[in-house]
Design a protein that fits this description.
The protein has 141 residues and is an alpha+beta fold. The chain has one domain: HesB-like domain (Hypothetical Protein Aq_1857, Chain: A, Sandwich). 15% of the residues lie in helices and 36% in strands. It contains two helices and ten strands, in the order E-E-H-E-E-E-E-H-E-E-E-E. The N terminus is likely disordered.
């Protein structure tokens, strides 16, 4: 099944001016602290960014407190450069920003694209989830 494969990220530290430098080899093994995107998620992220008219923008992943189970996933477009402490991942041209606090809970997560009769959208596959609510948008660790 194609969605079981993940794209190895190229991690890049953000500099104070938001520039990306120091790419790692695309052949490097994913680390436990990494967030990864499935090939389908990369494809759909590119489509969403192009549809929005900002193909060079990034996607910010994170968490916020709330929801039925304690935490809610956050996924949003990021037109600004990464913040100073953000981890920046690159998946075949799709940049993903994750703040350090969110990365603690998102480490090892695969962002996938799911399309069923009832749902279409990005799906977080987080190994730290202990429980999640029925709607699938909040979880606890």
């Amino acid at each position: 099944m194609e969605s079981d494969k993940v794209t190895t990220p190229q991690t890049t530290p953000a500099t104070a001016d938001g520039q990306v430098s120091g790419r790692t080899s695309p052949a490097a093994a994913p680390t436990k602290a990494a967030v990864t995107l499935s090939p389908k998620a990369v494809e759909m992220a590119k489509k969403q960014l192009a549809k929005r008219g900002t193909p060079d923008a990034a996607i910010r992943l994170g968490l916020k407190g709330g929801g039925c189970s304690g935490f809610t996933y956050v996924i949003e477009f990021a037109d600004d450069p990464p913040r100073e402490r953000d981890r920046v991942f690159d998946f075949d041209g799709v940049r993903v920003y994750v703040d350090p606090k969110s990365l603690i809970y998102l480490a090892g997560t695969v962002l996938d694209w799911e399309q069923t009769l009832m749902y279409q959208g990005f799906k977080f596959r987080n190994p730290h989830e202990a429980t999640s609510c029925g709607c699938g948008h909040s979880f606890s660790v």
